[in-house]
Amino acid sequence: VVPLCLRSMGCRHKNDEHSWDVLSFRRLFFSAAMTVVIGFEGSANKIGIGIIRDGVVLSNPRRTYITPPGQGFMPSDTARHHRAVILTVLKEALEQAGLKPADIDCVAYTKGPGMGAPLVTVALVARTVAQLWGKPLLGVNHCIGHIEMGRLITNANNPTVLYVSGGNTQVIAYSERRYRIFGETIDIAVGNCLDRFARVIKISNDPSPGYNIEQMAKKGSQYVELPYAVKGMDVSFSGILSYIEEAAHKMLSSGQCTAEDLCFSLQETVFSMLVEITERAMAHCGSHEVLIVGGVGCNLRLQEMMGVMCKERGAKLFATDERFCIDNGAMIAQAGWEMFRAGHVTDLEDSWITQRYRTDEVEVTWRD
Amino acid sequence: MTQEKSLAAPHFLSNAVLIKQGAEARVYRTEFLGKPMIVKERFPKRYRHPALDEKLTHRRTVQEVRSILRCRKAGICAPVVYFVDYISHCIFLEEIMSSLTVRDHIASIQQSGSCKEQELEYIADRVGQILATMHDEDVIHGDLTTSNMLLRCGLEDGDMEDMVIIDFGLSYISALPEDKGVDLYVLEKAFLSTHPNTEALFERLLKTYAASSKKSSAVIKKLDEVPQLTLSRN
Ligand SMILES: Nc1ncnc2c1ncn2[C@@H]1O[C@H](COP(=O)(O)OP(=O)(O)O)[C@@H](O)[C@H]1O
Ligand SMILES: [Mg+2]
């Protein structure tokens, strides 16, 4: 523990020094020129590379590693998938943007959180191209990427953020230079709960288990009661998952309900929990805006429910579609763009990755 | 009888003033036999399935009343319940006069900047003591935030304010240390995210809790385990 501590303290110190000497130069320089940032994302089963120039998405290609029904994605297989396609995706990103490496100002990559092996793979490529092209590197927090992309696309000003994906479930609000976590799951993420349910009843992973659950849920009608676990602004999904894992096959084989009914009931239950903790955080913070980000956030039923809640309390809902909700490269480019303009860069020797990286660890220097 | 009761809510709400839309209810102010009264209405949440909504709303109204009574019996300050309408899910409560949420109180102390460390410490100690008593009674609050604690102001100068716990909708009865640990964990996260740079203050709150509760050691142990649970699975 001690060497790790020392190391991160040392790196913060060095980063600060580095950012100060280029900061004043950059401020002058940027007042005229545009800033182009390329972002590399691969923390889970998506590999994406996006290019952003001053708030405009120039390109954002992506590939998804899809496993057979009943199977989740393993870190090493996912990393192998990313390695196989990353250079093709990079080529696409540059071609679609109509840019040459020389036009890029900064190379941003996901530092974490996420799965180790895929993170390392993508960081390695980002590091390599940064050195080849002679451009500065920037490690970005994946969650901050989602938030900044959502803010860019929707123009939400200071929203309460619901961040829902396969690996994360958090209710976040900004105050005093940090994205603070007001509520979160105390066990598994909502996307993880949905994915694992899909595996139990062998729903296809193509294009994603969540998408297929959403389509099946539209055909469900019978509401099956499931455990509901809200604890203040926190939620718990492990009880629902173990209940449904245990009961699903029995209920299906006895004809008590259909697979569609189960999808419907699961969505109604877990989304109600998410809307409820978002509302609790809004009441507590006095907020009147909600932004939904993360892969589960493109679910239209979740957006619809959140919209009704917002209407009932005179608030406004902001959401994006699958291009920007689901992990993508542009979100890393956008957070990178904000950070780079605020004077951050990551030195080569500090360009490691980390599987655990909390949203509230990052000092947000680019907002008031 | 139930029909008579269900008429109570419309009658009292007709001349009540909406003062707050809380985390799940609308809170109105009105009068009852000349006394100021709060009406807490759990209105239907149209975003969720009617069956789920009815189940949650009913359960929470019942739990809120039950836990308030249990706390008051144990000497914990909570508003008096005048009556309940289980049809319209309204609870009629004593209004805690000229009160401020602990959230607003801490924020104003922190903003005023002047050295009011003592006042903050008093608040932390009071919360720690009250929660210790509550947990020793096996009441799990379920929604511990600084918005759900009120401070009566306007007492004589120099007098420390009296603290009232409200909003027992997510409460339940349990003797399990892990339930109490999660209760504290929920408070810790809400506290630290709402009030930046109060880690030391929260430590003090926990110390007071530990010193005031008879069964605290198992609870604190569970509290330390919850974040590990979150980290390892997330
Ligand atoms: N008995 C009361 N006296 C004075 N103010 C109250 C009382 N009950 C509630 N309030 C006010 O209304 C707000 C919301 O009430 P609360 O019971 O917490 O409802 P919710 O479950 O919707 O959060 C509280 O934060 C407080 O400001
Ligand atoms: Mg409340």
UniProtKB/TrEMBL annotation, chain A:
Cofactor: a divalent metal cation
Catalytic activity: L-threonylcarbamoyladenylate + adenosine(37) in tRNA = N(6)-L-threonylcarbamoyladenosine(37) in tRNA + AMP + H(+)
Coiled coil: none
UniProt GO cellular component terms: cytoplasm; EKC/KEOPS complex; nucleus
Cofactor binding notes: Binds 1 divalent metal cation per subunit.
CDD domains according to UniProt: ASKHA_NBD_OSGEP_like_euk
Residues the record lists as binding substrate: 163-167, 195, 210, 214, 299
EC number(s) recorded for this UniProt protein: 2.3.1.234
Key words of the record: Acyltransferase, Cytoplasm, Metal-binding, Nucleus, Transferase, tRNA processing
Gcp-like domain span: 62-333
Gene Ontology biological-process annotations: tRNA threonylcarbamoyladenosine modification
Subcellular location: Cytoplasm; Nucleus
InterPro entries in the cross-refs: ATPase_NBD, Gcp-like_dom, KAE1/TsaD, Kae1_archaea_euk, Peptidase_M22_CS
Family from the record: Belongs to the KAE1 / TsaD family.
NCBIfam families in the record: arch_KAE1 (TIGR03722), gcp_kae1 (TIGR00329)
Descriptive protein name: N(6)-L-threonylcarbamoyladenine synthase
Species, as recorded: Mastacembelus armatus (zig-zag eel)
From TrEMBL, chain B:
Record-linked InterPro entries: Bud32, Kinase-like_dom_sf, Prot_kinase_dom, Tyr_kinase_AS
EC number: 2.7.11.1
Keyword terms of this UniProt record: ATP-binding, Hydrolase, Kinase, Nucleotide-binding, Nucleus, Phosphoprotein, Serine/threonine-protein kinase, Transferase, tRNA processing
UniProt xrefs under SUPFAM superfamilies: Protein kinase-like (PK-like) (SSF56112)
Catalytic activity as recorded in UniProt: L-threonyl-[protein] + ATP = O-phospho-L-threonyl-[protein] + ADP + H(+); L-seryl-[protein] + ATP = O-phospho-L-seryl-[protein] + ADP + H(+)
Single biological process term from Gene Ontology: tRNA processing
GO cellular component: cytosol; EKC/KEOPS complex; nucleus
GO molecular function annotations of the record: ATP binding; hydrolase activity; protein serine/threonine kinase activity
Broad class of the protein's primary localization: nucleus
Transmembrane segments: none
Protein family according to the UniProt entry: Belongs to the protein kinase superfamily. BUD32 family.
The protein's name in its UniProt record: non-specific serine/threonine protein kinase
